[in-house]
Amino acid sequence: VEGRWRNGHHLFGLCCCMGRECLHEAADAIQADDLDEACRAVDRASLYLAASSAAMVYTTDFPAQHYRNQIRAAMPPGFSGSHNSDFNHFKQLKGKLQVVAMKRWGKSTDQWPAPLLAAFSHFRDTDLLDLDQHILIAAANIGFGLSLKQTHERQADASAIGALRRMAEVRKKDFHLPE
Questions:
Q1: Can you tell me the distance from the alpha carbon of 20 to that of 15, in angstroms, rounded to the nearest whole number?
Q2: pTM of the predicted model as reported, rounded to 2 decimal places
Q3: What digits encode the pLDDT tens for the residues 156-166?
């Protein structure tokens, strides 16, 4: 169990790093007016994001009691995915890419090139599927319980699943794309 947990997190981190590099390449391509490369780079980032989701599923593919009794019990109080620097850097590059696109074509996506909008839309949908997987993992392992972060911060007003669903609502607005 511990080996799967550790190895899966290494794979997850690698996927986040590779996805981050793709988002960086997309931002550079937009700034260089290379729309085709920007679209390809966003598409590659979507693949790495999907791979990170698969790594997350692999990482937690064992009975819930092992998660609760071995893995979760060994985590420090308040620990959460927000402590994962690889994923945080990936999220930062996603935000940077949005800013670069807005500087190039404006805040309204009406002026953005259709191929890039399609690539961004696919990326956003992949990101939402990632959160769906995270929700299913949380439900399987802790039910409607609190995350370690919520427990540590005494946020008894919601469940981990509720917090993840709120994140999904925020991510739906990424890149200001129509739903």
A1: 8
A2: 0.93
A3: 778 999 999 99
